Amino acid sequence: MGYAHDFLALFLRWAHVVAGISWIGSSFYFMWLDASLKRRAGMPDGVKGDNWSVHGGGFYHTQKYMVAPEAMPDDLHWFKWESYATWLTGFALLSVVYWANAELYLVAPGGRVEPGVAIFWSVFGIVAGWVVYDLLCRSPLARAPMVLFGLLFVLITFTAYLYGHVFSGRAAFLQTGAMIATVMTGNVFFVIIPNQRVVVADLKAGRTPDPKYGVIAKLRSTHNNYLTLPVLFLMLSNHYPMTFGSPHAWVIVAIALCLGAIVRHWFNTYETGAKGVAVAWQWPLALALAVAMTAYAGLASAPSVPVASAGRTVADTEAFAIVAERCAPCHAAAPTFAAFNAAPGGVFLDTPERMATNADAIVAQAVTTHTMPLGNITGMTEAERATLAAWAAK
């Protein structure tokens, strides 16, 4: 059963990545297409602009209507299942990995909440995130897009801060990403596609479509576009404990939100043909934010590294006794911990030689960021972490 669970997680992760590539690819393409449209003489009434492209040896001519064409075309292609498939596979992956093993992946070390309670807050956070966001977008704030986006930034950052007090660092980042991703798919399912269906129904009935539906959908689509890169960062971060392992990891989330949005803004601006200052400030600022994130992660993690007593030397045998008890139940050729059939990440710590080979990883995961053991399931103490720090420093 263990291998079956692992393969289920693998296939779901694979499907999630494939669906995500499809959704992000189509989203980025249409944002580029919208920005690249040119108004030319002789265009039909109601056409905003057109685009000529070449790809794969063929030429493509695309036109965009301000609202809709006068009559429905025979074939109309919808872009929705990319979003739905991404969310469904992500939800399934969250269930199989984080909820099914909540005591390992979801619960914060020290057992601040029980696994069942953590799962409840995980589900509640995903649902509540969409409800609050949707209410804000339906409020008068929708007429002030920059104010609304600034408020969303504050709310997402504050949510990440709250998650850090309920979930493990890794789960807090993933949960924040899942909440944002749910907002993005909710925009497609509850707003963008229904609004498009209203326009299509009006065309079929011979009525003139109301432009407001396009305006509403455009606001949600723009939010999706600017949130895409931060979501990707949060989802990838679970492989890098220096991001979620710092005491104030919500700061990393705040920087990632800004960094991703600024990079995306450069692409959106550049693709309109803008030059000069309009496309000159984003990359320097993005680089500065990346440096700031790196520096902050290093400084924030430093105080959590136990400082060994002056002159203390820890023998390999003493260090291995800790590793054998706290780490090797999972990181062994034949793990004794029931959740694993093979050593996570292919890291083996079941002999002194293997422990020495992975000394840097032990310090990073168990000493600097406290992300290992997972959920501190084996009960590693601060004194033991200090001992490992002294051993690695000799």
TrEMBL record:
The chain crosses the membrane at residues 12-33, 84-106, 118-136, 148-166, 172-193, 248-267, 279-299. Residues 311-394 form the Cytochrome c domain. Keywords: Heme, Iron, Membrane, Metal-binding, Transmembrane, Transmembrane helix. Signal peptide: none annotated. Pfam families: Urate_ox_N (PF06181). GO terms for molecular function: electron transfer activity; heme binding; metal ion binding. This is Urate hydroxylase PuuD. It comes from Acuticoccus mangrovi. The lineage of its organism: Bacteria, Pseudomonadati, Pseudomonadota, Alphaproteobacteria, Hyphomicrobiales.
